[in-house]
Amino acid sequence: MTSIAKYTLTAILASGLTAGTFSMVQASNQSGAVPTDFPHMHRALDDLIQAQHSLEDAEARFEGHRGRALIHVHAAIDEVRTGLHEAGE
Question: Are 44 and 9 in contact (CB under 8 A)?
Fold first, then answer.
């Protein structure tokens, strides 16, 4: 696992994503809101965007860890979007 993947995973977990959030994303995918060519990438993008919002809303008292997590989440969002763009979506 690369460093960015470790930090991204940590950021997602730290953001407080719950099974309820995943269920909402999954439900939106089943309704056809997400193209079916790359459902996992779209789900990951949705989760990363939710993680970004959660981190932005979190208290700013984590000695820079919240800020560094946001940097990694932003990088992950950019990577997923680039990957989807290069795949033709």
Answer: no
Tens-binned pLDDT, residue by residue, of the chain (89 aa):
455 555 555 555 554 443 343 434 444 444 555 556 899 999 999 999 999 999 999 998 988 999 999 999 999 999 999 999 999 98
What is this structure's pTM? 0.60
User: Which tokens in the block code for residue 58?
Assistant: 């979190």
Terminal alpha carbon distance of the chain? 26
In the numeric block, which tokens belong to residue 60?
Answer: 């700013």
> How distant is the alpha carbon of residue 67 from its chain centre?
15
For residue 31, how many C-alpha atoms fall within 13 Å in the half-sphere facing its CB? 7
Task: Write the Ramachandran bin of 63: left for phi over 0, alpha for psi from -120 to 50, otherwise beta.
Answer: left
* Beta-carbon-side half-sphere exposure of residue 18 (alpha carbons within 13 Å): 1
Per-residue tokens: 34? 């997400």
